[in-house]
Amino acid sequence: MTPDEERLLRRAVELARRAREDGHAPYGSLLASADGTVLVEAHNTVRADRDISAHPELKLARWAARELDPAAAAATTMFTSCQPCPMCTGAIDRSGLGRVVYALSAEQHAALQPGGGFPRVPQEGPALPEEARVPVDGYYT
Ligand SMILES: [Zn+2]
């Protein structure tokens, strides 16, 4: 990590600290262009928005997919206070961002939570694959 990248990562941690001070969950992220320019910043607003998806990483992934062309998105780096959760990781992958740099790993984060985080919801299937494939078949050609 370069000194400039370390400065950007420290900024993400600062956003997390300020979020907690303001009564939000303590997570912050920013998106930087290849030259280190901060394009957008976000913090967790799950409580204020009453929206379980209001994670900063997801907000930035949505912003990039909406506002940047694919080449510009691929040239960005997300700096985030904690390793993105599975929900945000899926959105980041779909957004086409270039890379993610995080300050605290998911494992280190889980160690700070009583119970270690959210339980996994069981998933069952495929239950009707022949019927369910009909509306999808041919869509991506
Ligand atoms: Zn998340």
TrEMBL record:
Gene3D superfamilies: Cytidine Deaminase, domain 2. Transmembrane segments: none annotated. It comes from the Bacteria. Residues 3-114 form the CMP/dCMP-type deaminase domain. It holds the Pfam family dCMP_cyt_deam_1. PROSITE patterns: CYT_DCMP_DEAMINASES_2. InterPro entries: CMP_dCMP_dom (IPR002125), Cytidine_deaminase-like (IPR016193). This is Nucleoside deaminase. It comes from Actinomadura parmotrematis.
